[in-house]
Amino acid sequence: MKGLFIFFSILIFIGPAVADVPVRQEQLIYSIKAFNGKDYSDTFCGENSDTIYLIADQDNFITARKTLVYYWPITGDWKTDTSALNYPFEGTLELTAKGGESRIISPERYTYYNVQGEYELNWEVATGDEAEKAWQHYLGLIDQYRQATSEYQQAKMTFDLMMNELTKMITEMRNAGTDVTELVEKLKTLRSPEPPKPPDDYIVPPSPVQNAFILSLPRGEYNIRFINEDDAVMEGSEKRVVVFEKRRADGIGFEVIPGDKWTRPVESKSPSSVLYVDGTTNLYLRPFFQDEFNDLYYQKMIKNDAKGNPSLMNWVRIQQVPGSRIELTGNSHASEVILEEFFYVEQTKGSALGYKIVPFDPEGAHKGRDPSLIAFKVTVNRERSLIWFKLLDKSGLNMTGSSRQVRVIIKSRWQPVLLLLCLLPLLAMAVVRMIRSRKYSL
Amino acid sequence: MSFRLHAASVIAKRRIFESCLSPGFYIAQAAGLLLSYFLISGFVSSIDSSGFNYMLHPLYELIGRSLAGAFGITFLEKLFAEGPFQFVLYISFVPVFLYLSFSTVFRFGLEKKVGAIELLAYGPVDGTSYFLAFYIKDVVLTILYLLLLVLFLSAAALLNNLVLGPAFLYALVVMFFMTLLLYTISILASVLTDSGASAMALYIGIILLFLIVMMGSFTIASGYVRSFSSVLSWVINWVSPFFYWGLALSFIEAGNILYYLLILLVMATLSSLFLFLSHLVIKIKGVRP
């Protein structure tokens, strides 16, 4: 009996610990690096999934590999454990369009990177020797930067030494009562060396050159299967590929940051949407370009085991709108154009938690720091109950689909009247029944 | 034809008068308006400095969690993007719609079973004019209630600084056309069966089937469920009022007015087709139970 008690006690304590270790399964997976309209998303298509989702006419990179797959219940995700097993297969990919012919795709060396430009997104993909060149070019830039940094450190050290020596000499000579004018003049002419700037050619530097099947396909449905070096189809490698495109492009959305919750911004995506607020704080707006995709397809492209709504289209934030302005109009207010400003988020002083967004002061209180926020400030208060705004481009033209309205909700004291209105039909019923009963009563 | 229309209009007037005397219609209206009142005041209480946050109000927390869980957060965002009124419109219409369609189905079936329609058919009334009268009554009372509802919602919007939203009018019109189609299905269910209970069972069954298929297509899914539901819904959707309703709203969202109008036309055509089918059925089966 005692033994049984000890056994169950051990089981109770050990049980949860054992249950926390997810079971890892060895699986053939397709590792996918899919272009999502603004960046590359890494996901994988395991044995549980039969479909891969990709955006049309964009370079996407796929590899077949054997790895360990497990379910992580805390986040509800399927994950791979590549540290224990990560074996990429050599072979080719057979791609068959729905009702079309098959073609064989061979793996290619590739790299991808995002270069600087007017807009945030200027993604480029280099393949084959070009990929190697792009990678080497980037390594060259890094080497140059390292060299310049090393030279700078050397020069800085020399400068610091000279400064120390001169200062020491001046102090000693001054103590001895000797004239130090010449040395002070020399000290004044000394200039600290400038630190080198890191290479700014790239927003996202090239990735190391890798091997993958590059799929850039027109919209449609396809089937793929992996053929290994022995010309045999790998078991479990047959998958469907759904290639989809955006329904609408270059819509205008707004990231709306309330002054009291700057870490919890909301997005206004639909052009007909209305932003209802309680008017207790100002709003900070950041406009962005957005594209519209099928919700399910897009979610599954980002993460193959995700869920989505197959019947809905969803606007997806792509990149910020450069050089724009916002025109505000409202009830009892003349129209006003506001520009993007720099702001800094300051912790509120005292024991109470919180912060406030203040204008960025690079010469004063915020010297040597970066602004926390670059946005359009829209002043909202309870006296200003309706604000219309729209985005203007660099040349001052209205950007289509950028109009929105902000309404400040003030709970009316006439609410009970509304409640009484709801009961009007019952009042009408009572009147009708009273009239009827009088009419037919003796 | 003109005698049939005349008979239908005379009976319809009588039916409308009866509905105005019975308490059911008033109670359904009051229930609809009360629902809209609570939904609007709940929405107003769910607004904070960053906009609509359904976690702030217990009623909306329940609604928000249920809708987001079943249909995804995108669905929820779209539903409340312009404010509460689209959602309020649909919910507030349910009591009156259920009252009108169920009372039509049940009463038609009952009167058929007890031989009241047969008795009238010996006079200047035939089965077609009789069900047309029910249809006219439902349409007229629906218009009356929708007018009242729009007035109420406009007053609520004005008091709370809300706006009905650009899509509200489109949603209202498409909901009206969808209701016309649902009423014709209720009539078809009535003429196909021999008693009130069986007509009611058939009608509820059809509506539930359409609803399940529509909700299936809107439910968040991953691969397999979607392919299964799309095959099933492909077959049923062609006659489902809810499918055309969703389609019309998606066209409005995409700014495609022409296709929206086309869907309204399809719904009107389908309504006529169901009425014609009912006419054929009653002509072949007769008005005897």
Structure in words:
The complex is a heterodimer of chains A (442) and B (289). With 442 residues, chain A is an alpha+beta fold. Chain A has three domains: 2-128 and 210-244, no CATH class; 129-204; 248-408, no CATH class. Chain A contains six helices and 25 strands. In chain A, strands 1, 2, 4, 5, 8, 9, 10 and 11 form an eight-stranded antiparallel sheet that branches. In chain A, β21 and β22 (355-359) form a beta hairpin. The model of chain A has no long low-confidence stretch (mean pLDDT 88). By secondary structure, chain B is mainly alpha-helical. Chain B has one domain. Chain B is built from twelve helices and two strands. Chain B has a two-stranded antiparallel ribbon with strand order 1-2. In chain B, β1 and β2 (51-52) form a beta hairpin. In chain B, α8 (166-192) runs antiparallel to α9 and α8 runs parallel beside α12. Chains A and B meet through β14, β16, α4, β25 and α5 of A and α2, β1, β2, α4 and α7 of B.
What secondary-structure arrangement, pairings included, does this model have?
The complex is a heterodimer of chains A (442) and B (289).
Chain A: H1 2-19, E1 25-35, E2 40-45, E3 51-55, E4 60-72, E5 77-88, E6 91-97, E7 102-105, E8 108-115, E9 123-127, H2 128-175, H3 181-189, E10 202-204, E11 210-215, E12 220-228, E13 239-244, E14 248-258, E15 266-268, E16 274-277, E17 283-294, H4 295-302, E18 313-320, E19 325-330, E20 333-338, E21 341-347, E22 355-359, E23 373-378, E24 386-392, E25 404-408, H5 415-422, H6 424-440
Parallel strand pairs in A: 3-13, 16-25
Antiparallel strand pairs in A: 1-2, 1-4, 4-5, 4-11, 6-7, 6-12, 8-9, 8-10, 8-11, 12-13, 14-15, 14-17, 17-18, 17-23, 19-20, 19-24, 21-22, 21-23, 24-25
Chain B: H1 2-21, H2 23-45, E1 47-48, E2 51-52, H3 58-71, H4 73-79, H5 85-113, H6 116-121, H7 127-160, H8 166-192, H9 196-218, H10 223-236, H11 241-253, H12 257-285
Antiparallel strand pairs in B: 1-2
Helix pairs in contact in B: 1-7, 2-5, 2-7, 3-4, 5-7, 5-8, 5-9, 7-8, 8-9, 8-11, 8-12, 9-10, 11-12
